[in-house]
Amino acid sequence: MQESGHKKPYILGLTGGIGSGKTTISELFKEHGAEIIDADEISRTLVQKGTSLFNEIVKHFGNHILNNAGELDRSALRQVIFNTPEEKRWLEELLHPAIKKEIQSQIIQSTSAYVVLVVPLLLESGTYDFVNRVLVIDVPETLQIERIKQRDGSNEELVKKIIAAQMPRQQRLLQADDIIYNSGPISLIRHQVEKLHAKYLQESNTSAC
After folding, report:
1. Bridge partners, residue 137, by sequence
2. Which among 44, 90, 125, 206 has the fewest CB atoms less than 10 Å away?
3. Buried-state track 47-80, b at ≥16 Cβ within 10 A, e below 16
4. CB neighbours of 62 closer than 8 A, spacing ≥ 6?
């Protein structure tokens, strides 16, 4: 325990492939009172128009990755980085340290019994070894593709490239402490979340002793 009397929260790392439903599941945990720290939301804040990271990205990629409002066009940027691996690496090396720093800052400030840390590349990055437990959200690849095509209007070829750039499904499942199969009815998903919430509350209390 820290001298201030503020204990470090129990950290659940929530991850899964693109289109698996990470945001939906995290919102269900939030309904139970868990605090959510979302790496994608942090990333969007860090690259808002006018920030230093925004300026570096535009300087590197050019104005064609901007929309009519002069903000980052995430779809256009995605087209570039998933068709050019070295550009993807460049962007990750720029953003990941800043995202991790902000995540750690939010964890320190948390007063929740446990924190749900949502990171798409949690297992791939190898830099989140401070999480206490890993929850993987899993869906079949065919469902991933359909969801992303509907959500983002992306073509199937690009979606498959994004999936291929992430950890293979079976490898991700092997590294999971817990798994939610998010292809069934919402009532079943809610029941899984409720059971896991009770489990994480118990584990957070145990870890604090």
Report:
1. 16, 180
2. 206
3. beeeeebbeebbeebeeebbeeeeebeeeebbbe
4. none
In the chain, beta strands by DSSP E: 10-16, 35-38, 114-118, 133-138, 178-181
Q: What is the DSSP letter of 66?
A: B
Using pLDDT thresholds of 50, 70 and 90, give the confidence band for residue 207: confident
The first and second tokens of residue 159, run together, are 């979606």
- Helix intervals (H) in 35-139: 39-46, 52-61, 74-81, 85-109, 122-125
List the structure tokens of 35: 């605090």
Describe the chain by its helix, strand, coil percentages, rounded to 5: 55, 15, 30
Q: 96-124 pLDDT, tens per residue?
A: 999 999 999 999 999 888 999 999 999 98
> How many angstroms separate the Cα of 151 from the Cα of each of 13, 18, 127?
24, 11, 29
Residues 6+ apart with CB under 8 A from 18: 120, 144, 148, 159, 162, 163, 166
Residue 87 and residue 65: Cα distance in Å, rounded?
Answer: 13
Answer for the pair 205, 9: CB distance below 8 angstroms, yes or no. Answer: no
